[in-house]
Amino acid sequence: MGKIELKGIVIIVGNYGSGKTETAVNLAFHRKAAGVDVRMADLDLVNPYFRTREARHILFEKGIQVVLPEEKYMNADLPILAPQVAGLIRNPAELTILDAGGDDTGTTVLAALADSFVGRDVNLIQVVNPLRPFTETVEGCMRIQEEIEASSKLKVTGLVSNANLIDETTPDIIYKGYELIQELSHQAGIRVEFITAHEKLLPGLDLSRFDTPVLPILRQLVPPWKKQGL
Prior knowledge:
Blueprint: E1 8-14, H1 20-33, E2 38-43, H2 56-61, E3 65-67, H3 82-90, E4 95-100, H4 103-106, H5 108-111, H6 114-117, E5 122-128, H7 138-152, E6 158-161, H8 171-188, E7 191-198, E8 214-217, H9 224-227
Parallel strand pairs: 1-4, 1-5, 2-3, 2-4, 5-6, 6-7, 7-8
Helix pairs in contact: 7-8
């Protein structure tokens, strides 16, 4: 099945609702636990609820540096991170994760950082949740990929299956997501970096069915309306 060995500059992208930020945060935890020096930057200017900055306290507690706007701009949807992010790209950690916004609209900020990426090994990872609109099929996933590449001025280099229905996720959903990401990989000619599965589902999964690594997910991002009900 292999291990997740991602290093260098890793940009996490995906369509709205793909779970890219949850994936980015858990990837940071996973690689940090493996002894890798990890830093992150929040470039999500689209989604007001599921952003890396919402998990900043636990990231800091685990020793992961997070580049964020000044406190007074914390909830602003403005492209104010470019100078700090450019510095992070010029002096990257062993693993530098950039959490970009959803869809092509959210990745336009990456085009503004194009000069900083020149001459650097950049991994642009597309997260796919086949249970979300527009990514139920390989064709839909490839259409989203093309839009992201056009707006970011970068090429997708890796794929991640994040097949889930949150609390209603079953092993069968993860198996079907794996099948779709494998077909997408074959048609697009892009490797699958890993798939995800919530920690509570891992004991019930037949891991021999996967030839890619599995990233355990422990949910860190909860929308305000659900927090109120906890």
